[in-house]
């Protein structure tokens, strides 16, 4: 469906922002290590050309510009071992919630923690396989579902358990929807390169220590089943993003809990795609005049 292999959006050393196809050395799969890209012209969801123009990468940005994103859907409790660590039964149907598009941010951006999210402990990490829909889909049978995927990325569904579970009135969005709480990237690997999204190692490091290490094989609802389910009676559009849930090892599942703190460095990685590395940055209170 797509002609790119490793789609990135980046600030180049010439000061311009481009979409590009990352140039990776043989044996390298982590898009975060790319230093150059071939510039892409055209519609990334339709006809586009990978030009011979090679640009030097200064900074990788969120792989999709905000005006190219339609919705950010997310699944909760979608790994068997994650359900076990929370002492919960696996759900019968996918647990769906949404994050605002303003929660999306780049693979190296800071995770901003505003004043309301500093009122109580509970800041948590969640590494996730991220699916990007590439063409309109409705009532899609599961065997055809992957045909509608443009590509895959890795993301962090940053969450605040106090706001999610105690202050949200039963809705999760407040605890997961703050600005910058959905880093993803470091690019989008074409679905033509990842044939089986259920066979990928997925992990998280916190200040260099591994805190999550699993496989997408542990998903309760795999990517194809998820897309098929979400498309029943509801149209999925190009630019829809789906965070597919996190494996075991989250901070809230530990005793005592392991909460993120100001200055922590969180890395989320997915086999064949790469790593997003983000620093937790508490907003400083403003002096009153």
Structural commentary:
It is a single chain. This protein has 289 residues and is mainly beta. 8% of the residues lie in helices and 37% in strands. The protein is built from 4 helices and 18 strands. The protein is globular. The termini are far apart.
Question: Mean pLDDT, rounded to whole units?
Answer: 95
Cα-based radius of gyration, to the nearest Å:
18 Å
Number of strands: 18
Q: What is the first-to-last residue Cα distance?
A: 56 Å
**Percent range for β-strand residues:** 35-45%
Shape: globular
Order of helices and strands: EEEEEHEEEEEEEHHEEEHEEE
Structural class of the helices, strands and pairings? mainly beta
Discrete helix count: 4
The largest β sheet comes out as: 11 strands, mixed
In which range does the helix fraction lie?
under 10%
Q: Provide the low-confidence segments as ranges.
A: none
SSE map:
Layout: E1 6-12, E2 17-23, E3 36-42, E4 48-60, E5 72-76, H1 80-85, E6 95-99, E7 104-105, E8 111-113, E9 123-124, E10 127-133, E11 149-156, E12 159-160, H2 161-166, H3 173-176, E13 182-190, E14 201-206, E15 209-215, H4 223-230, E16 241-243, E17 265-270, E18 274-282
Parallel strand pairs: 5-16, 7-13, 8-18
Antiparallel strand pairs: 1-2, 1-4, 1-13, 2-3, 3-4, 5-6, 9-12, 10-11, 10-16, 11-13, 14-15, 14-17, 17-18
Brief sketch in words of this structure:
By secondary structure, the protein is mainly beta.
């Amino acid at each position: 469906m797509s002609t790119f292999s490793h789609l990135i959006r980046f600030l180049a050393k010439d000061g311009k922002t481009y979409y590009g196809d990352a140039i990776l050395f043989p044996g390298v799969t982590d898009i975060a290590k790319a230093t150059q890209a071939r510039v892409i012209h055209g519609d990334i969801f339709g006809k586009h050309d990978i030009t011979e123009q090679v640009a030097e990468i200064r900074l990788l940005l969120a792989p999709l510009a905000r005006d190219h994103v339609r919705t950010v859907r997310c699944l909760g409790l979608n790994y068997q071992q994650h359900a076990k660590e929370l002492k919960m039964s696996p759900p019968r149907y996918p647990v769906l919630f949404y994050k605002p598009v303003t929660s999306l941010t780049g693979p190296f951006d800071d995770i901003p923690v505003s004043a309301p999210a500093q009122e109580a402990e509970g800041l948590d990490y969640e590494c996730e396989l991220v699916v990007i829909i590439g063409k309109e889909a409705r009532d899609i049978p599961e065997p055809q579902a992957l045909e509608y995927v443009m590509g895959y990325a890795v993301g962090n569904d940053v969450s605040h358990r106090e706001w999610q579970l105690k202050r949200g009135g039963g809705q999760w969005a407040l605890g997961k929807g703050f600005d910058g709480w959905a880093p993803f990237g470091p690019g989008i690997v074409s679905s033509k390169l990842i044939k089986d999204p259920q066979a990928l190692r997925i992990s998280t490091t916190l200040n260099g220590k591994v805190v999550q290490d699993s496989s997408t094989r542990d998903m309760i609802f795999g990517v194809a089943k998820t897309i098929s389910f979400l498309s029943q009676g509801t149209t999925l559009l190009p630019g829809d993003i789906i965070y597919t849930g996190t494996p075991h090892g989250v901070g809230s599942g530990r005793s005592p809990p392991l909460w993120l703190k100001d200055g922590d460095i969180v890395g989320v990685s997915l086999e064949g795609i790469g790593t997003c590395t983000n620093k937790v940055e508490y907003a400083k209170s403003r002096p009153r005049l």
